[in-house]
């Protein structure tokens, strides 16, 4: 197992302390795990502290999933985490990024009015 595998596991479980310790130990913030995904792609979308830490360390907010073309902003919009959506946009996530089905994050936000209203203004 690599540091990047450990980093993605910590991010996916929302373990901010472990994420920080792994980044300080040399884990590459944009490195991929054994499944080809970065920590930002697999992080628990509702864990704002993990997202803030990864982005502070230079995580690419526009990284696309190899199979779906979705970005972390698509995932945060789809799951309705407005604070994570705002944070990703603040760190230059592209609100007009298109996935493999030609959908933007606003298109996959479902009925989440707060996410839709925010994305409609950027």
- Percent of sequence in beta strands: under 5%
Number of domains: 2
Instruction: From the 3D structure, determine the CATH topology of the largest domain.
Output: Serine Threonine Protein Phosphatase 5, Tetratricopeptide repeat
Please report the distance between the alpha carbons of the first and last residues: 39 Å
CATH architecture of the largest domain: Alpha Horseshoe
How would you classify the helix and strand content by structural class?
A: mainly alpha
Radius of gyration: 14 Å
Number of strands: 0
Oligomer: single chain
Bulk shape: globular
CATH class of the largest domain: Mainly Alpha
Please name the fourth-level CATH homologous superfamily of the largest domain: Ankyrin repeat-containing domain
Helix content: 40-55%
Order of helices and strands: HHHHHHH
Main sheet characteristics:
none
Give the count of helical stretches: 7
Poorly predicted runs = none
* Average pLDDT, all residues: 97
């Amino acid at each position: 197992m690599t540091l990047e595998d450990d980093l993605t596991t910590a991010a996916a479980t929302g373990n901010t302390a472990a994420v920080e310790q792994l980044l300080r130990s040399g884990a590459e913030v944009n490195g991929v795990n054994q499944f080809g995904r970065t920590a930002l792609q697999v992080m628990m979308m509702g864990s704002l502290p993990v997202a803030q830490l990864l982005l502070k360390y230079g995580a690419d907010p526009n990284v696309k999933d190899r199979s779906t073309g979705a970005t972390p902003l698509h995932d945060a919009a789809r799951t309705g985490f407005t604070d994570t959506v705002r944070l990703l946009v603040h760190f230059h996530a592209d609100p007009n990024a298109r996935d493999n089905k030609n959908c933007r994050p606003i298109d996959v936000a479902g009925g989440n009015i707060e996410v839709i209203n925010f994305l409609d203004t950027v």
